[in-house]
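Q: I have 426 residues here and want to know how they pack in 3D. Can you give me a structure?
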Amino acid sequence: MPWRYRIKLSGKFLLLIILTQLLGPGNLPPGDELARIRAFTTGEEFDYISWTLKALGAKLEQASLPVSNYLDESTQKLAVLDYLTLVREIQNTERQLNDIYADPNIEDVEVQAAPVRAHLEELFRQRSRRGPLAESILQNQLALIVTDMDFTLGGQPIPPVLYRSSPLPWALIVSPREVIRQDANISLKTELTVEDNIALEREIDEALNVSSLVVPVGGIGSYPTMIAQTTNLVWLVDVVAHEWIHNYLTLRPLGFSYNSSSEVRTMNETVASIAGKEIGLALIARFYPEFLPPAPPPAQSQSDESQPPPTPEPPSFDFRAEMNITRLTADQLLAEGKIDEAEAYMESRRQLFWEHGYRIRKLNQAYFAFHGAYADVPGGAAGEDPVGAAVRALWAQSPSLVSFVNRISWLTSFEQLQILLAGTPE
């Protein structure tokens, strides 16, 4: 049975072009500070215009031949899971090829690598054929979920759900040294190496006396949204939903004001994180229930209360708790004007995280300026930032997800959120 939601060419081409102009990655407005930073990124920034035109062309081509609409639900599910298996094989083959080039015991690397490279190229060809179908299926499934949740206008999700799996640009984050604050978020070319990123960070830090960090991202709220290739279905639908919520908010005051302040940016990211998880889990529950995370253990019954509790396991390393301690301590040191001490402390903590298996390349003010905006869960890199807590409080007081998102979507400042909460009955 065909899906009741589909992208149609008739009447929607103009809408897609208009939305493409309105929806896009957040970039700070021009300013002296941003201009100084961009002096170092000239020629290295990601070309969103070319990527968007190519992605829209692919989506319009898919819409003209909507194969997914004529597949039954079980066939659609199989197509998505088979595609994820293909992606896993690609990743394994890429690692195999990298190992060949890194192995000092292989005398003729090119001969050894040739069949692996040929196999990888064939896998890429399969991905180019099968990827668009999997994307179309997940788009339609997500559209059904958000329609059921009433994220619609005239019975259709606006904007239409569109995403494209793609190598993602790097994000250059810049913060002052004396306070944790995101002053720039600039998208860089995907092909830059880690060595390129380190050199760029060093150049900017030394010239401008700032704290910078180039980070990978999982998704970008362009239109269509950009999503990293993955084999993790739960993560994939979470990120697709997260970025679609950014598109949804961009047509409303909160999203339109994304770059007006760090508080508003945190509001946007926290809303998208909360809604992305809820929508993503609803999609998994409906179409891929075997991938649902395990339910929490049942509460202890009254009859069991007389039994002695089991001996607890020794506590493992709690990443969020330790990162929260790190953020709070760094904030305190910076507030006291102890910039060098704060940076030395963050580096010592980075080494602690590394020893426990968390491969953080650089832990500095820019790291917290970026990761601290995602405050859907207490603690972690957000520290004691009250914005995330306020957004979570509004969510807890809301009767539904769409009510929560729509209420906050009309705000343009943290002060308005505080006023709204003050007038909301407990």
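Q: Anything worth noting?
A: Confidence is low (pLDDT under 50) at residues 1-14, 26-30. The CA atoms of residues 175 and 183 lie 5 Å apart.
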